[in-house]
Design goal:
This protein is an alpha/beta fold. The protein has 10 helices and 13 strands.
Amino acid sequence: MKTALVCGAGGFIGSHLIKRLKKEGFWTRGVDVKYPSFSGTEADHFMIGDLRELTTTTQAIDRRFDEIYQLAGDMGGAGYIFTGENDAEIMHNSCQINLNVLEACRLRNCKRIFYSSSACVYPEHIQRDPKNPGLVESGVYPAAPDSEYGWEKLFSERLYRAYARNHGLTIRIARYHNIFGPEGSWNDGREKAPAALCRKVALATENGEIEIWGDGEQTRSFLYIDECLEGTTRLMRSDCDEILNIGSDEMISINNLVKMICGLAKKNVKVKHIPGPIGVRRRNSDNSLIAEKLNWKPSELLVHGIEKTYRWIDLQLKDMGLNVTPTLGSAVT
């Protein structure tokens, strides 16, 4: 039986990845400072521990795993990353985790490691026009990310590649573009735009009002969790050692995302634009390289993933006695 370790298994992507690996027949170990927030873990062994501590990391990596997925880090949505209030913690925590994981893998002779980077590594100046095409992997240099989170991710990319060169590790790196879906953060201050807007629309009364940051014309692409996992495992098991985007190329403005959610909810909602952190003006994934290297690229329509996510958040609110949403409509394909 093949074995896999998922670092950050208590988080959104990590908990879903454990479920996928179990379906594929892996014996799995998950490690995190917490259990998954919305469902029980399916890991064969779940270790509660802080990967910022080297002793904890070496206990988690106590054998040679066939696959190690390093998803652990300090992150969140725009309200967490772009205020500047969390920069030191973000950089310190994530860098320390990556240093520990790599050193523990070297000591245990664990060869195949996946690292989840981010679209936040791309230069700010090429993301100012909301109508520009997607971000190409080679465009990351000259480096100029728009946040300390992006700088940390870029440093860590180089750290993993250095360990590959100097210690013979097989490293696979993907730059995730706004992954979303059920069981992700939706009300704790770290949620991203799809979950935050689904929550706001679900809570709004008919002809009520919701607030969004900025003018709403900033554009993004969002990738549903199942597509993320498919791309991740394909890359992990491939012979491709290039860094790849894993994201959708279906770009949408925040204003149009609100309209999509309102259409699904069959609800008329007004939008109030307020000042707030919005990040770059435009971010979209160019999927040319992943299609070339893996003969695959994400293809599910955004509206399908948003519908599933809305339904899940709608149920969370009902369980809390806060739901005011009428019967959910069907997605328009």
